[in-house]
Amino acid sequence: MVKICCIGAGYVGGPTMAVIALHCPSIEVVVVDISVTRISAWNSDQLPIYEPGLNEVVKQCKGRNLFFSTDIEKHVSEADIIFVSVNTPTKTRGLGAGKAADLTYWESAARMIADVSKSNKIVVEKSTVPVKTAEAIERILTHNSKGIKYQILSNPEFLAEGTAIQDLFKPDRVLIGGRETPDGLKAIQALKDVYAHWVPEDRIITTNLWSAELSKLAANAFLAQRISSVNAMSALCEATGADVSQVSHAVGKDSRIGPKFLNASVGFGGSCFQKDILNLVYICECNGLAEVANYWKQVIKVNDYQKNRFVNRVVSSMFNTVSGKKIGIMGFAFKKDTGDTRETPAIDVCKGLLGDKARLSIYDPQVTADQIQRDLTMNKFDWDHPIHLQPMSPTGVKQVSIAWDAYEASKDAHALCILTEWDEFKTLDYRRIFDNMQKPAFVFDGRNVVNVEMLRDIGFIVYSIGKPLDPWLKNMPAVA
Ligand SMILES: NC(=O)c1ccc[n+]([C@@H]2O[C@H](COP(=O)([O-])OP(=O)(O)OC[C@H]3O[C@@H](n4cnc5c(N)ncnc54)[C@H](O)[C@@H]3O)[C@@H](O)[C@H]2O)c1
């Protein structure tokens, strides 16, 4: 029986391995992690992450050929194929701080593999890593090899949170990079054989190691760049009376451009886009490519601009002050159908409003009060370290309360800010909400989910990103 061990039981390791186990009953899959709480949660009925469809998949194979364990060394030493899916945060100090990837967790995983292995291994990079990481990993492993042979493969993960199970069941492509030597090609084939249990052969792409590593960074940079492009356009739409949804629709009809990923919003978030672009920028700089680095830097700058612009809109619309005013925050996760808050634009928007002394009442159907308080008190990039290594938030932010539902969050509020596109925000009883709010009652829709006309008919003053401005807002330009 082929044995797979995955180091890192997070948003990528957990779902990816569950889907492999489901489709490959003849393979034993063990997911290991240094976090005892995370592994206990995987072994309970309350999984540590929320992802539609994940529960059902895990239920079918947990205890059959899918296991979660903290006994890392045992399972690594027994495995034929080792996936490494650990955090690769942005460095916060030293060389490349604020840009380069921190490979501390990766390196310690590699050293541990070298220490405990007694048989040949295929080591698969599942984490997103800088191009050429495989070379460093190879050096660590072969330097301590005791005659054991290692083959390093790059198999970056392209799943999107919120649709992870769907993406893993029917991936657009599976990418496998490896050495172009007889042993390298054999390792590529072994990993191909795993995916071939359910992925059609023409969707499995093989490349050299460096192309695979760089393709992941490139794909995330292209995706984020599309969002920053449409968000930049949204500012121009507001200035000119154009409607960004109509512009996106018209632009997306061009088959060379395509309709996906063209929704204007308060900004992109998530654990990957910013981190991976910063990493790309750093690699470009290290290779003397200043113009290329600056080009990609702009994608992040526009994203920061969009979040600031939103905060300025809120404050300037409400007579230039939100001091002491209650603002209901609808949604905190970085997108719908996930409880993940890493780099969510809600953090920057909330911090901006708190900076102007607002009182916030935050509601999100999947994010806990503790997580929200941690996010609002944590230093930049601290979130991307294993949970047990993150600083605890000793005291919560006083001006922040957490609400059980949208109605509680909006009660007596002066304004609502919609920051996540949860479906339930489309069908709220906005008449009831309006009746319970202070007047004038404002809605700032950062995700373009509400029916603007309907809300204006009720009496709300509505701001919707990139849409023709409410007459109220016309003389209150929000310049970031
Ligand atoms: N989240 C996504 O949507 C996504 C998508 C594609 C790729 N990625 C990439 O995948 C990687 C993992 O991302 P994630 O979202 O799953 O992160 P995560 O923080 O959810 O999970 C990583 C896990 O690794 C564990 N870990 C760290 N060092 C370890 C060690 N030495 N031994 C054992 N366990 C260790 C941590 O405790 C944590 O549980 C990152 O490189 C990320 O960029 C993420």
UniProtKB/TrEMBL annotation:
Chain segments annotated as coiled-coil in the UniProt record: none
Active site: 272 (nucleophile)
Leading EC class: oxidoreductase
Pathway(s) of this molecule: Nucleotide-sugar biosynthesis; UDP-alpha-D-glucuronate biosynthesis; UDP-alpha-D-glucuronate from UDP-alpha-D-glucose: step 1/1
Keyword NAD part of the UniProt annotation: yes
GO biological process: glycosaminoglycan biosynthetic process; UDP-glucuronate biosynthetic process
Catalytic activity from the UniProt record: UDP-alpha-D-glucose + 2 NAD(+) + H2O = UDP-alpha-D-glucuronate + 2 NADH + 3 H(+)
Annotated NAD(+) binding sites: 8-13, 33, 38, 86-90, 127-128, 161, 272-275, 342
GO molecular function, one term: NAD binding
E.C. code: 1.1.1.22
NCBIfam families associated with the record: NDP-sugDHase (TIGR03026)
Record protein name field: UDP-glucose 6-dehydrogenase
